[in-house]
From TrEMBL:
Residues 1-20 form the signal peptide. The keyword Signal applies. It comes from the Bacteria. Keywords: Signal. This is Alpha/beta hydrolase family protein. Gene3D superfamilies: alpha/beta hydrolase (3.40.50.1820).
Amino acid sequence: MRLPRRLLPMLLLLPAGARAQGRQMRPGAARLLGPARAQGALVWAHQHYLDGPPPDPPPFLDRLLGQGWDPWRLDRLAPAAPGQFGLDPLEAGAAALAAGTAALRLEGYRQVLVVGESRGAFITLVALRQAGLAEAVLLLAPAAHGSRPERRPQALAEFRAACAAAVPGAVRRAGLVLFQDDPYDPDPAARAAAFAEGMARCGAAALVIDRPPQPIGHGAAGDPEFDALFGARLAGFLAG
């Protein structure tokens, strides 16, 4: 079952301040199993976008939906114009994600998983400063600084800082997927090492898939080939 683009018109779970910033946790399907019946909540933190509905999650998450996980989506407003990244700040997104996962637990979900792609993945990484964020997170091609060469030092420094800031108890399992020919990745080898070190410091089991031969490119997680090659492994890692 794919998560549909047209979701329930329902604002839930986040405090009023987060809603005012344009962030909201929405159910990702018209019918949820609910906290009592579901395996847990699966939160999708989507990538940066400019118009239309928020981007769909990658196909491999269908595996978890089939196992009884309830889909939710952390919404973030699209900027009014290209390049206005300040309208989608990392710190605000991370705070909203932490508040949202905490609210899902208050609703009764026993387990929470978070999967983020591109900017959503970077936001999820920053949110690992919060103890009890989720049972597991998966970061797909984290990005938050564009692709210009002059921004690569900052992009790598902020990625390393976020890995180092992850706190014990934030997450039990954390995965990172990096792709070949990703123009938004400043240094894949350095990022893979920083992630592994950061997760070891905070006591999380880490899985790193570092530039597989196929598929390639920043959006490769959405390729059906990615599901065929890695979907079962990633779904199993997330669910534990």
